[in-house]
Amino acid sequence: MRVADSGRYVLFGVKGWGSALAEALLELCRAPYELVEVDGFDTPSAARDRLLAYNPLAQVPTLVLPDGVVMRESAAIALLLSELHPESGLAPPPGAAERPFFLRWLVWIVANVYPTFTFADYPERWVRSEREDFAQAVGGYRRKLWQQLEAELGEGPWALGERFSALDVYLGVMTHWRPRRAWFAQNCPRIHAIAESADAHSVLGPVLTRNFGED
């Protein structure tokens, strides 16, 4: 779907949700954008109606590019922005030693960890009974996934070692979600250290504070 050229990016988001990823990526690209805040997915509003025109699933993030092309899915947004704004350093360039690791774990996060929040937050979409047991089981599975990533991370302030990338945006944002930072500090110290580095980042840190406060 294409819309009239706005001259800048338009990001549809909900504070503290997955749109924080795209918001942080745009800030790191130093790209001009308009943030359209949607109060809720199930509550009728003018912002939600506007979002539905671009995304029939009413999901965030939904990003309208300056030329009017609509982008959905955070990993696709991350990869596209890394190409449109190579100076941002969001992704190692083709041929870089870190690129296979970056691509593998970026897709792994969005394909494996990210869906567990949808499953546990909206279990009624998948099951009609035993809601609490289902949510707890998904939460346990999510913690195991995080520990899998923890085991493969090396030393260094970022997921790729010395090189900052969009992976660190994901870890900075998603460690604010369940099981939250205290659990990561105890069980995944490398991921927790990366999250703390994200908090201290001059561009990424303010986005995290706006979305999640000081927790």
Automatic annotation (TrEMBL):
Membrane spanning residue stretches: none
Domain of life where this protein originates: Bacteria
This protein's UniProt keywords: Transferase
Stored InterPro entries: Glutathione-S-Trfase_C_sf (IPR036282), Glutathione_S-Trfase_N (IPR004045), Thioredoxin-like_sf (IPR036249)
Keyword Amino-acid biosynthesis set for record: no
Gene Ontology molecular function, alphabetical: transferase activity
Domain GST N-terminal: 6-89
CDD domains: GST_N_Beta
Protein name: Glutathione S-transferase
